[in-house]
Amino acid sequence: MEKKKSIFTSQKFLIFNIALVSVILGFTVSTLLIWGVSGNNRFPNAFAQDSDTLEKGYQALENIQYSFRNVANVALPVVVELNVVEVVKGNSQGATPWEYFFSPPGERNDQDEDFEYRRPGLGSGVIVKRDGNKVFVITNNHVVGKASEISVLLNDGRNYPGKIVAKDERTDLALISFETSQDVPLAKLGDSDNTEVGDWAIAIGNPFGFESTLTVGVISAVGRSALPGSGIANFNQYIQTDADINPGNSGGALLNVRGEVIGINTWIASQSGASAGVGFAIPINNVKKVMNDFLTKGSVEYGWLGVGIDDPSAEAYPGAADDLGIKDKPGALVISLFKGSPAEKDGILPGDYIVKVDGKAVKNATHLTQIVGNLPPNRAVEFVLIREKKEITRRVTLVARESEEKVRSNKNVWPGFTAARLTDDIRKRLKAPHTIAGMFVSGVTAGTSAESAGLKAGDIIMKVNNKVVGNVLDFYKALNDRSQDEVSFRVWREDKEFILGIVH
Question: What is the pTM of this model?
Answer without folding.
Answer: 0.73
